[in-house]
Q: What sequence folds into this?
């Protein structure tokens, strides 16, 4: 067992709100966001970095937040699923997921939406191949992905 | 002699009209789920709660010689621990469904004295953070005395096999002989007998992305536990937990909101939930358990692994199949958590979709040093239907017949519906031949030989395969008595309440525990159609809470039944409410006869004078808050609870005969594969899934279920397997090693449907969602077709990774012989 972990003060801006918290050095970014900041929209589906349920944007970069320590995000600007809709108004991508039945249980959806958001920022009108590659880091066990491909395509420019 | 009868009113199928039902309305669930505003179990927090981590066995089989939790307990921030010894003193073993020898198992929330599989929970540690609980678990000192392990079910009954449960005397858990028709006559009538030495259905499960979990609080004043949990069958969990914990079922309050996938895998979390309850009481604080992915893979709900030995099939030269004999050997893993129900569930679909009338199956279930099996999407029927589909393709191959023609020759015909199977099940409706035509059209059957030739030019072997399945839904739990006549279960039920509240809000409560099936939406569609209002006016409460008095013994979401049990309960409660609103309207509108009233546009009004209308808001206000002066005998609450009970009889236990499920949705899938013969690598280049689940309330949700089930099948047939080494170590304990389909893995998919309304259900619906096994069957068939003339291997396993295909191309398949009868 490791000795009692040292901690560090971390400042992050999540969805436009600045937070300052004392964080255990070993704490994963996803646990920090979910447990300490109480932003539970991002989920956890594995313990090996495979599933992508915890995907979020850190300084504009798509990351799996279980693969970063919270202290590594010190000073970062973070975007999570809670920051997508504007005042409860769904984004075009979120609405498209609903329209195309691209979600069932909704557990993978926040991570999937963040990956798709990153994809659409880079490729506003993605090809089928770009969509599949853009989402390959996110596991969905309900839909078989087909409707997700359709939803992302329709949300493109 | 008993015969099966269905006592039900004549079919009353929804007439085609402008209704909410049948339309792809926006799902009510989506607004919160697309914004990260769902509430899943790990999202729930309580002041001062402790996090649970389980210490798990590193051995497949070992005596526990000592456990020392002192160092862990002395660590700052650790709240406490729970050991198997404490569990054994505080609880009784879980009730067993099996007759002896399986009945003798002593199953507790934690291992007591012995471990029986790698990953079995031995000690629970609770600490103030997840990280600390995990670290402190490593300070728990457990001494083991390792024993030999048995991981191959075929060796479990050998004389020298290590015995998992001394109480049972051997590894045999349950066995039964199922025989219907006249086997001797069938084999005498046959022209040929096709013999298959061994087939194997592999071990996998559907790995919901959210693992199991709970937050449990104990109320010392009332002695009641509240379990916020994603268990998908609270009724079953309560029945298992109450007697073990020596408490009434009302002391176990189950609450869910959103569940991140279930697929049957979240039915048997009761051992972990007991540990949570004991810890919440012992430590006098809320405790939280979220299973790690690796823990799920090692210990939770593996799908039943099954062998089929010494199969003999009675066949006519024209491809007519008369019957079969086989010996099914089912590997239950280390404990019977829902088993041995798998020993009878398959019998819901005894003949598959085929007409053969003479069937014998000797079923044996054994224990092995692997994780316990529990229901997994397609539970037990999938294994059996894979077997019947394999038989079709093997017979076609051996007799050099077209597999499609063999299927059409043997399919039960649409005109024979409702059809009584040899074991008394009633297939309610269906048209398999028509579905097959739709499926073959979708993949371009007419041009397939040309594509085969083109593939050959590219050095690829192209094959086409069909998978035909049934998704039997709405269990008659009386079938459990075929396993154990002493069990006091039969029939089925589900509950809904529908009420009109003070301001006219229509509030619906369900007993179900949806995991993505959109129950809030489809329930609202049914209610809105009956009340004559908009679905936006119908508020369906999210999730399940046993405090709402809206549940019954079989409440939950499992086994393909919501469209029947859940929606029929919703319909029943809404019909009651309509009747009450009219009774109230009759009084308030001046004694107008109820027959002269109608519900429309959110009002009850006089048919011939629509302006004389009483809005729902007024109805709700009058009854709930302004009721002075109403007639004394006006029996109206506007709060209606209905329990739907399907029309079942007890099966005839002697003959193992009777109707085991109410509805039979069907699926015909067609797969086209291309194999690279140099490596065994293959791709699914075209795929069609055709579904029939009767009347569809929300076609998009139905199609979504078809797609998801198909994807799971395609993952299972090519990639997913819980593989163990000879010492019982799980080789695929996480998503690195256990490859589930990713976006890049998905083949092109075409979906189709037909609708044959069920004559047995109030809405003409059938339960659906589990039909994905067809994908496994179709790909196995396509691989075999592709290898025709290239080694001619017979596909013998449901799991066909590229390596196995390469091996088969190099002449390793099932051993099949054909003998004259």
A:
């Amino acid at each position: 067992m490791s000795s009692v972990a040292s901690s560090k003060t971390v400042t992050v801006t999540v969805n436009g709100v600045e937070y300052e918290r004392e964080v255990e050095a070993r704490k994963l970014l996803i646990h920090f966001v979910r447990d300490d900041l109480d932003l539970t929209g991002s989920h956890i589906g594995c313990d090996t970095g495979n599933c992508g349920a915890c995907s979020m944007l850190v300084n504009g970069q798509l990351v799996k937040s279980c693969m970063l320590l919270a202290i590594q995000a010190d000073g970062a600007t973070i975007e999570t699923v809670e920051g997508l809709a504007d005042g409860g108004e769904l984004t075009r991508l979120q609405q498209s997921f609903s329209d195309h039945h691209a979600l069932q249980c909704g557990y993978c959806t926040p991570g999937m939406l963040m990956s798709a958001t990153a994809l659409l920022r880079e490729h506003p009108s993605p090809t089928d191949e770009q969509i599949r590659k853009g989402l390959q880091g996110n596991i969905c066990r309900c839909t078989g992905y087909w409707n997700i491909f359709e939803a992302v395509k329709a949300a493109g420019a | 002699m008993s015969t099966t009868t269905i006592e039900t009113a004549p079919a009353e199928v929804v007439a085609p009209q402008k209704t909410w039902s049948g339309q792809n309305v926006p799902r009510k669930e989506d607004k919160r789920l697309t914004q990260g505003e769902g509430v899943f179990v790990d999202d729930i927090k309580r002041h001062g709660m402790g996090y649970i981590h389980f210490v798990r066995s590193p051995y497949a089989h070992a005596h526990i010689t000592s456990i020392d939790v002192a160092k862990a307990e002395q660590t700052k921030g650790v709240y406490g621990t729970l050991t198997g010894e404490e569990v054994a003193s505080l609880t009784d073993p879980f009730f067993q469904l099996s007759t002896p020898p399986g009945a003798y198992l002593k199953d507790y929330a934690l291992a007591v004295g012995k471990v029986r599989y790698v990953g079995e929970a031995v000690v629970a540690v609770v600490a103030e953070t997840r990280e600390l609980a995990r670290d402190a678990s490593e300070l728990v000192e457990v001494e083991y005395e390792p024993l030999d392990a048995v991981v191959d079910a075929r060796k479990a009954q050998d004389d020298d096999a290590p015995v998992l449960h001394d109480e049972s005397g051997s590894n045999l858990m349950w066995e039964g002989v199922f025989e219907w028709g006249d086997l001797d006559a069938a084999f005498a009538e046959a022209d040929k007998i096709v013999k298959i030495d061994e087939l194997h259905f592999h071990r996998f499960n559907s790995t919901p992305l959210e693992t199991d979990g709970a937050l449990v609080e104990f109320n010392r004043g009332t002695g009641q536990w509240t379990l916020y949990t994603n268990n998908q069958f609270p009724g079953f969990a309560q029945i298992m937990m109450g007697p073990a914990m020596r408490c009434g079922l009302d002391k176990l309050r189950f609450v869910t909101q959103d569940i991140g996938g279930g697929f049957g895998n979240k039915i048997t979390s009761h051992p972990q939930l007991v540990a949570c309850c004991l810890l919440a009481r012992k430590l006098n604080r809320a405790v939280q358990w979220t299973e790690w992915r690796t823990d799920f893979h090692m210990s939770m709900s593996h799908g039943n692994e099954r062998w089929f030995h010494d199969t003999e099939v009675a066949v006519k030269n024209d491809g007519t199949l008369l019957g079969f004999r086989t010996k099914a050997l089912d590997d239950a893993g280390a404990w019977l958590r829902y088993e041995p129900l798998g020993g009878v569930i398959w019998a819901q679909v005894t003949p598959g979709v085929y007409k053969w009338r003479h069937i014998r199956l000797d079923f044996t279930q054994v224990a092995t040093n692997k994780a316990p099996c529990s229901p997994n999407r397609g539970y037990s029927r999938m294994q059996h239907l894979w077997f019947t589909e394999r038989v079709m393709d093997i017979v076609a191959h051996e007799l050099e017949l077209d597999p499609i023609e063999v299927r059409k020759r043997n399919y039960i015909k649409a005109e024979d519906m409702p059809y009584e199977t040899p074991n008394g099940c009633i297939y309610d409706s269906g048209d398999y031949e028509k579905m097959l035509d739709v499926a073959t059209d979708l993949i371009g059957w007419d041009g397939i030989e040309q594509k085969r030739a083109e593939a050959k030019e590219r050095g690829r072997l192209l094959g086409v395969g069909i998978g035909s399945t049934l998704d039997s839904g709405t269990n008659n739990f009386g079938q459990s008595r075929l396993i154990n006549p002493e069990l006091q279960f039969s029939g089925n039920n589900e509950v809904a309440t529908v009420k009109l509240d003070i301001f006219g809000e229509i509030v619906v409560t369900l007993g179900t525990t949806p995991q993505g099936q959109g129950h809030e939406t489809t329930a609202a569609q049914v209610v809105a159609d009956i009340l004559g209002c908009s679905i936006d006016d119908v508020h369906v409460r999210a999730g399940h809470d046993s405090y709402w008095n809206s549940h019954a013994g079989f409440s939950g979401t499992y086994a393909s039944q919501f469209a029947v049990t859940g929606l029929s309960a919703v319909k029943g409660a809404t019909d009651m409410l309509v009747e009450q609103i009219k009774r109230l309207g009759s009084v308030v509108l001046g004694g107008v006869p109820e027959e002269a009233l109608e519900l429309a546009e959110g009002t009850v009004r006089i048919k011939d004078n629509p302006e004389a209308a009483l809005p729902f808001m007024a109805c709700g206000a009058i009854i709930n808050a302004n009721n002075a002066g109403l007639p004394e005998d006006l029996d109206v609450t506007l709060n209606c609870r209905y329990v739907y009970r399907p029309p079942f009889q007890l099966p005839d236990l002697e003959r193992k005969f009777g109707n085991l499920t109410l509805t039979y949705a069907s699926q015909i899938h067609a797969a086209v594969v291309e194999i690279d013969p140099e490596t065994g690598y293959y791709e699914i280049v075209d795929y069609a899934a055709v579904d029939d689940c009767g009347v569809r309330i929300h076609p998009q949700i139905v199609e979504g279920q078809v797609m998801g089930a198909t994807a799971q099948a395609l993952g299972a047939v090519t990639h997913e397997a819980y593989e163990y080494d000879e010492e019982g170590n799980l080789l695929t304990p996480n998503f690195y090693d256990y490859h589930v389909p990713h976006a890049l893995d998905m083949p092109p998919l075409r979906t189709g449907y037909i609708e044959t309304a069920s004559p047995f259900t109030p809405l003409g619906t059938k339960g659906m969602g589990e039909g994905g096994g067809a994908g496994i069957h179709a790909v196995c068939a396509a691989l075999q077709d592709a290898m025709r003339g290239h080694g001619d291997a017979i596909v013998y396993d449901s799991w066909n990774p590229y390596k196995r295909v390469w091996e088969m191309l190099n002449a390793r398949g099932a051993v099949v012989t054909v003998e004259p009868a």
Notes: Chain B touches chain A through 64 residues (CB under 8 Å). The longest helix of chain B spans residues 562-588. Chain B has three domains: 41-147+211-259+267-299, 176-205+301-478+650-820, 493-644.
